[in-house]
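Retry 2 of 3 after timeout on previous attempt. Resubmitting C-alpha coordinates to design endpoint.
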Protein backbone atom coordinates (compact mmCIF):
# COMPACT_ATOMS: atom_id res chain seq x y z
CA UNK A 1 0.00 0.00 0.00
CA UNK A 2 1.37 3.38 -0.96
CA UNK A 3 2.25 6.12 1.51
CA UNK A 4 -0.44 8.37 -0.01
CA UNK A 5 -3.13 5.72 0.58
CA UNK A 6 -2.07 5.37 4.21
CA UNK A 7 -2.21 9.13 4.65
CA UNK A 8 -5.75 9.23 3.23
CA UNK A 9 -7.04 6.55 5.65
CA UNK A 10 -9.47 8.21 8.08
CA UNK A 11 -8.47 8.21 11.72
CA UNK A 12 -10.49 6.19 14.18
CA UNK A 13 -12.95 8.36 16.09
CA UNK A 14 -13.31 5.86 18.93
CA UNK A 15 -10.66 7.41 21.16
CA UNK A 16 -11.92 11.02 21.01
CA UNK A 17 -15.50 9.78 21.37
CA UNK A 18 -14.64 7.86 24.55
CA UNK A 19 -12.90 10.92 25.97
CA UNK A 20 -15.95 13.08 25.25
CA UNK A 21 -18.49 10.74 26.82
CA UNK A 22 -16.32 9.71 29.78
CA UNK A 23 -17.44 12.55 32.13
CA UNK A 24 -21.12 11.92 31.44
CA UNK A 25 -20.66 8.15 31.72
CA UNK A 26 -18.80 8.54 35.02
CA UNK A 27 -21.54 10.79 36.38
CA UNK A 28 -24.19 8.29 35.32
CA UNK A 29 -22.36 5.40 37.00
CA UNK A 30 -21.66 7.28 40.24
CA UNK A 31 -24.89 9.25 40.68
CA UNK A 32 -27.49 7.03 38.97
CA UNK A 33 -26.52 3.41 38.37
CA UNK A 34 -24.69 2.72 41.64
CA UNK A 35 -27.35 4.36 43.87
CA UNK A 36 -30.06 2.44 42.00
CA UNK A 37 -28.31 -0.91 42.50
CA UNK A 38 -27.46 -0.02 46.10
CA UNK A 39 -31.09 0.91 46.80
CA UNK A 40 -32.31 -2.36 45.27
CA UNK A 41 -29.93 -4.27 47.54
CA UNK A 42 -30.94 -2.30 50.65
CA UNK A 43 -34.60 -3.04 49.90
CA UNK A 44 -33.80 -6.66 50.78
CA UNK A 45 -32.21 -5.75 54.10
CA UNK A 46 -32.97 -4.27 57.49
CA UNK A 47 -30.68 -1.29 57.71
CA UNK A 48 -30.04 1.93 59.59
CA UNK A 49 -27.01 4.19 59.54
CA UNK A 50 -25.78 2.88 62.92
CA UNK A 51 -25.16 -0.69 61.76
CA UNK A 52 -24.53 -2.95 58.80
CA UNK A 53 -27.34 -4.15 56.50
CA UNK A 54 -28.92 -7.44 57.59
CA UNK A 55 -30.39 -9.48 54.75
CA UNK A 56 -34.11 -10.19 55.29
CA UNK A 57 -35.18 -11.22 51.79
CA UNK A 58 -38.61 -10.02 50.71
CA UNK A 59 -39.82 -9.12 54.21
CA UNK A 60 -39.88 -5.39 53.45
CA UNK A 61 -42.09 -6.01 50.44
CA UNK A 62 -44.43 -8.22 52.48
CA UNK A 63 -44.67 -5.48 55.13
CA UNK A 64 -45.39 -2.98 52.38
CA UNK A 65 -48.35 -4.98 51.09
CA UNK A 66 -49.78 -5.03 54.61
CA UNK A 67 -49.11 -1.33 55.31
CA UNK A 68 -52.32 0.71 55.12
CA UNK A 69 -50.41 4.00 55.21
CA UNK A 70 -48.40 2.93 52.15
CA UNK A 71 -51.55 2.16 50.16
CA UNK A 72 -53.06 5.45 51.27
CA UNK A 73 -49.89 7.22 50.07
CA UNK A 74 -50.20 5.48 46.70
CA UNK A 75 -53.85 6.54 46.42
CA UNK A 76 -53.06 10.15 47.36
CA UNK A 77 -50.15 10.23 44.90
CA UNK A 78 -52.30 8.89 42.06
CA UNK A 79 -54.99 11.47 42.82
CA UNK A 80 -52.40 14.24 42.79
CA UNK A 81 -50.92 13.00 39.49
CA UNK A 82 -54.33 12.89 37.79
CA UNK A 83 -55.24 16.39 38.95
CA UNK A 84 -51.84 17.95 38.29
CA UNK A 85 -51.30 16.39 34.86
CA UNK A 86 -54.88 17.05 33.83
CA UNK A 87 -54.77 20.74 34.75
CA UNK A 88 -51.23 21.29 33.53
CA UNK A 89 -51.51 19.54 30.16
CA UNK A 90 -54.83 21.09 29.13
CA UNK A 91 -53.80 24.59 30.19
CA UNK A 92 -50.32 24.28 28.65
CA UNK A 93 -51.67 23.16 25.27
CA UNK A 94 -54.24 25.95 25.28
CA UNK A 95 -51.66 28.56 26.25
CA UNK A 96 -49.17 27.30 23.64
CA UNK A 97 -51.80 27.41 20.88
CA UNK A 98 -52.77 30.97 21.87
CA UNK A 99 -49.12 32.04 21.74
CA UNK A 100 -48.65 30.35 18.39
CA UNK A 101 -51.75 31.87 16.81
CA UNK A 102 -51.80 35.32 18.41
CA UNK A 103 -48.30 36.40 19.36
CA UNK A 104 -44.64 35.63 18.74
CA UNK A 105 -43.36 38.01 21.43
CA UNK A 106 -40.13 36.81 23.04
CA UNK A 107 -40.97 38.93 26.10
CA UNK A 108 -44.23 37.04 26.66
CA UNK A 109 -42.52 33.67 26.24
CA UNK A 110 -39.83 34.68 28.70
CA UNK A 111 -42.35 35.92 31.26
CA UNK A 112 -44.08 32.53 31.22
CA UNK A 113 -40.91 30.96 32.59
CA UNK A 114 -40.68 33.24 35.61
CA UNK A 115 -42.66 31.00 38.02
CA UNK A 116 -40.56 28.00 36.94
CA UNK A 117 -37.37 29.86 37.86
CA UNK A 118 -38.54 30.30 41.45
CA UNK A 119 -37.56 27.53 43.86
CA UNK A 120 -40.32 25.07 44.76
CA UNK A 121 -40.04 25.88 48.47
CA UNK A 122 -40.45 29.61 47.81
CA UNK A 123 -43.50 29.00 45.60
CA UNK A 124 -45.01 26.72 48.23
CA UNK A 125 -44.51 29.29 51.00
CA UNK A 126 -45.90 32.08 48.81
CA UNK A 127 -49.13 30.20 48.11
CA UNK A 128 -49.31 28.91 51.68
CA UNK A 129 -49.48 32.49 52.93
CA UNK A 130 -51.83 33.66 50.18
CA UNK A 131 -54.26 30.79 50.83
CA UNK A 132 -54.03 30.89 54.62
CA UNK A 133 -57.44 30.58 56.27
CA UNK A 134 -56.93 33.51 58.67
CA UNK A 135 -54.62 36.02 57.00
CA UNK A 136 -54.46 34.91 53.36
CA UNK A 137 -55.42 37.41 50.68
CA UNK A 138 -57.44 34.81 48.77
CA UNK A 139 -59.69 34.11 51.75
CA UNK A 140 -59.95 37.85 52.41
CA UNK A 141 -61.38 38.30 48.90
CA UNK A 142 -63.70 35.30 49.36
CA UNK A 143 -64.97 36.76 52.63
CA UNK A 144 -65.40 40.20 51.07
CA UNK A 145 -67.79 38.85 48.45
CA UNK A 146 -69.87 37.12 51.12
CA UNK A 147 -68.75 33.52 50.56
CA UNK A 148 -67.55 31.17 53.31
CA UNK A 149 -63.78 31.00 53.75
CA UNK A 150 -61.95 27.86 52.65
CA UNK A 151 -59.19 26.02 54.51
CA UNK A 152 -57.29 25.17 51.33
CA UNK A 153 -54.44 23.35 53.10
CA UNK A 154 -56.41 22.31 56.18
CA UNK A 155 -59.44 20.62 54.65
CA UNK A 156 -59.12 17.03 53.41
CA UNK A 157 -61.45 17.86 50.52
CA UNK A 158 -59.25 20.68 49.21
CA UNK A 159 -55.71 19.74 50.19
CA UNK A 160 -54.58 17.57 47.26
CA UNK A 161 -56.32 19.74 44.66
CA UNK A 162 -54.70 22.86 46.15
CA UNK A 163 -51.22 21.34 46.03
CA UNK A 164 -51.85 20.24 42.44
CA UNK A 165 -52.95 23.77 41.58
CA UNK A 166 -49.85 25.34 43.14
CA UNK A 167 -47.49 23.08 41.19
CA UNK A 168 -49.52 23.58 38.02
CA UNK A 169 -48.99 27.34 38.38
CA UNK A 170 -45.24 26.86 38.76
CA UNK A 171 -44.72 24.43 35.86
CA UNK A 172 -47.34 25.72 33.42
CA UNK A 173 -45.06 28.13 31.57
CA UNK A 174 -42.29 25.57 31.09
CA UNK A 175 -44.72 22.93 29.83
CA UNK A 176 -46.41 25.44 27.51
CA UNK A 177 -43.04 26.38 25.97
CA UNK A 178 -42.30 22.70 25.27
CA UNK A 179 -45.63 22.40 23.47
CA UNK A 180 -45.00 25.72 21.71
CA UNK A 181 -41.71 24.33 20.38
CA UNK A 182 -43.67 21.40 18.93
CA UNK A 183 -46.12 23.79 17.28
CA UNK A 184 -43.21 25.58 15.61
CA UNK A 185 -42.34 22.34 13.80
CA UNK A 186 -45.75 22.11 12.09
CA UNK A 187 -45.48 23.69 8.60
CA UNK A 188 -47.61 26.76 7.99
CA UNK A 189 -48.68 25.25 4.66
CA UNK A 190 -50.74 22.66 6.56
CA UNK A 191 -52.80 25.41 8.21
CA UNK A 192 -53.09 27.26 4.92
CA UNK A 193 -54.47 24.16 3.21
CA UNK A 194 -56.97 23.68 6.07
CA UNK A 195 -58.11 27.32 5.74
CA UNK A 196 -58.64 26.86 1.98
CA UNK A 197 -60.79 23.81 2.73
CA UNK A 198 -62.91 25.94 5.05
CA UNK A 199 -61.80 24.42 8.37
CA UNK A 200 -62.41 26.63 11.39
CA UNK A 201 -60.06 27.10 14.35
CA UNK A 202 -61.70 24.40 16.47
CA UNK A 203 -61.69 21.79 13.71
CA UNK A 204 -58.14 22.71 12.74
CA UNK A 205 -57.01 22.16 16.32
CA UNK A 206 -58.61 18.70 16.65
CA UNK A 207 -57.83 17.43 13.15
CA UNK A 208 -54.40 18.96 12.51
CA UNK A 209 -52.71 20.53 15.53
CA UNK A 210 -53.35 17.83 18.11
CA UNK A 211 -52.43 14.81 15.91
CA UNK A 212 -49.22 16.47 14.71
CA UNK A 213 -48.31 17.37 18.29
CA UNK A 214 -48.47 13.74 19.47
CA UNK A 215 -44.68 13.05 19.62
CA UNK A 216 -44.12 16.27 21.59
CA UNK A 217 -47.07 15.59 23.87
CA UNK A 218 -45.67 12.13 24.66
CA UNK A 219 -42.39 13.73 25.72
CA UNK A 220 -44.23 16.33 27.78
CA UNK A 221 -46.40 13.67 29.47
CA UNK A 222 -43.44 11.44 30.31
CA UNK A 223 -41.58 14.38 31.87
CA UNK A 224 -44.56 15.77 33.78
CA UNK A 225 -45.91 12.42 34.99
CA UNK A 226 -42.46 11.41 36.23
CA UNK A 227 -42.12 14.72 38.07
CA UNK A 228 -45.64 14.54 39.49
CA UNK A 229 -45.08 11.11 41.02
CA UNK A 230 -42.04 12.53 42.83
CA UNK A 231 -43.81 15.51 44.42
CA UNK A 232 -42.31 16.19 47.83
CA UNK A 233 -41.22 19.72 48.70
CA UNK A 234 -44.58 21.44 48.20
CA UNK A 235 -46.27 18.90 50.49
CA UNK A 236 -43.49 19.01 53.08
CA UNK A 237 -43.60 22.82 53.31
CA UNK A 238 -47.37 23.35 53.29
CA UNK A 239 -49.17 20.40 54.93
CA UNK A 240 -46.52 17.94 56.08
CA UNK A 241 -48.83 15.18 54.85
CA UNK A 242 -51.88 16.37 56.77
CA UNK A 243 -54.55 16.83 57.75
CA UNK A 244 -54.26 13.25 58.95
CA UNK A 245 -52.87 11.37 55.97
CA UNK A 246 -54.89 13.31 53.40
CA UNK A 247 -51.82 14.65 51.56
CA UNK A 248 -49.16 12.13 52.59
CA UNK A 249 -47.75 11.32 49.15
CA UNK A 250 -45.42 8.41 48.48
CA UNK A 251 -42.21 10.44 48.36
CA UNK A 252 -42.98 12.04 51.72
CA UNK A 253 -43.73 8.64 53.27
CA UNK A 254 -40.44 7.27 51.93
CA UNK A 255 -38.60 10.25 53.44
CA UNK A 256 -40.32 9.77 56.81
CA UNK A 257 -39.51 6.06 56.94
CA UNK A 258 -35.85 6.64 56.07
CA UNK A 259 -34.88 9.82 57.89
CA UNK A 260 -37.46 10.13 60.66
CA UNK A 261 -37.71 6.47 61.68
CA UNK A 262 -34.41 5.07 60.40
CA UNK A 263 -36.07 2.30 58.33
CA UNK A 264 -33.78 2.63 55.34
CA UNK A 265 -34.45 -0.90 54.10
CA UNK A 266 -38.20 -0.39 54.07
CA UNK A 267 -37.81 3.05 52.47
CA UNK A 268 -35.58 1.52 49.80
CA UNK A 269 -38.24 -1.11 49.05
CA UNK A 270 -40.84 1.61 48.52
CA UNK A 271 -38.37 3.48 46.32
CA UNK A 272 -37.94 0.38 44.15
CA UNK A 273 -41.72 0.11 43.79
CA UNK A 274 -41.92 3.80 42.86
CA UNK A 275 -39.18 3.29 40.27
CA UNK A 276 -41.11 0.38 38.73
CA UNK A 277 -44.30 2.46 38.67
CA UNK A 278 -42.51 5.29 36.85
CA UNK A 279 -40.83 2.95 34.37
CA UNK A 280 -44.14 1.22 33.66
CA UNK A 281 -45.99 4.51 33.25
CA UNK A 282 -43.36 5.88 30.84
CA UNK A 283 -43.34 2.66 28.79
CA UNK A 284 -47.15 2.57 28.62
CA UNK A 285 -47.37 6.19 27.52
CA UNK A 286 -44.80 5.72 24.77
CA UNK A 287 -46.46 2.56 23.45
CA UNK A 288 -50.09 3.67 23.68
CA UNK A 289 -49.42 7.13 22.23
CA UNK A 290 -47.02 5.81 19.54
CA UNK A 291 -44.15 8.09 20.52
CA UNK A 292 -41.91 6.97 17.65
CA UNK A 293 -44.45 7.81 14.94
CA UNK A 294 -45.55 11.10 13.45
CA UNK A 295 -48.56 12.05 11.37
CA UNK A 296 -46.45 14.67 9.59
CA UNK A 297 -45.37 13.23 6.24
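Retry 2 succeeded. Sequence:
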Amino acid sequence: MSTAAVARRPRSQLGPALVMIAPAALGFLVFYLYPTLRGAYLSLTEYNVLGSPVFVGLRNYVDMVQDDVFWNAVRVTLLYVVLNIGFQTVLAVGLAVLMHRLTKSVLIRGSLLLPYLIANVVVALLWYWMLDYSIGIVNAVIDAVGLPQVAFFGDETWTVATIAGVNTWRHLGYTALLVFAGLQMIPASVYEAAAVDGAGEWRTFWRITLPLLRPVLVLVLVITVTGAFQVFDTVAVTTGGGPGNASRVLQLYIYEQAFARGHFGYASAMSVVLFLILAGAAFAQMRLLRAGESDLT
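Attempt log closed. Residues 189 and 200 are 15 Å apart (CA to CA).
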